[in-house]
Amino acid sequence: MTLLRHSGAVLLDAAARAGLGAPVPTCPAWDVRALVTHQGMVHRWAAAHLRGEKDHDPKTSVAAAQAAPDLLAWFADGLESLIGTIAATPDDAEAMVFLKDAPPPRRFWARRQAHETTIHSADSLAAALGRAPTASDVTIAPELAADGVDELLCGFITRGRGKLRTDEPYTVAVRATDTGDAWTLRVEPDALTTTAGARAGAQPDAEFAGTAAQLYLGLWNRGAELTATGRPDVLRDWRSQVRVRWS
User: Fold this and answer.
1) CATH number for the domain including 21?
2) Hey, CA dihedral for 2, 137, 32, 150, is it positive or negative?
3) Within a domain: 134
4) Closest to 183 in 3D by CA, of 226, 128, 223
5) Which of 28, 151, 175, 247 could form a disulfide with 209 if both were Cys (CB 3.0 to 4.6 A apart)?
6) Which tens digit of pLDDT belongs to each residue from 139-161?
7) Residues 156, 144: contact at Cβ < 8 Å?
8) Are strands 191-196 and 227-230 parallel, antiparallel or unpaired?
9) What pLDDT, in 10s, does the model give residues 25-52?
10) Do 95 and 38 share a structural domain?
11) What pTM value is reported for the model?
12) Would strands 206-210 and 170-176 be described as parallel, antiparallel, or unpaired?
């Protein structure tokens, strides 16, 4: 939960510096108000799942955000409630999870909201900076960034929503130059699989490399520092096709 609390604080600080009406370069459809509202809503939605509240309606949170006299204070309240809920949830609690090969609910939601908040803190930083952040702008430990890459590659894009599409199968190697973590993606017309570790034998058709933080931002389409080699269309397709959406 250290990453969740830290990233929430970064998001709040950058949002205050940027102002609620500032555009978010990494999410062109949003201003800071929309960003803060979205993340605060997601925090409340996640906490409700852990508490077993099956009748929770995210629209209620959005309405509360719109009515709040201090949106940033409303966000901070939701963040603290989520952290408290995670801390109070037993390790064997039952709750909904939605990623492939997800860990048990308490661990799942702690991890998911830590990375959700970290990526959106990068969006908030982008609003304050007026540009996409670099890896040096964010403060995330390499091993935590690598875990976020793993969640994206193994949990999200293999679900079937927003996955890469291709007529000609290809393989992509992803390599973190600082932590030594590696992943291999096999992209086919009707399937996408990710294997942790480098693939032995044949050379991949493309490779994405960089520090764990550069990969974290780059693969979430929040940064442009990763190095892509091999087929030039692979990174282009990633940028245009890989999208993680609320609905």
Assistant:
1) 1.20.120
2) negative
3) no
4) 226
5) 175
6) 899 999 999 999 999 999 988 65
7) no
8) unpaired
9) 999 999 999 999 999 999 999 999 999 9
10) yes
11) 0.94
12) parallel
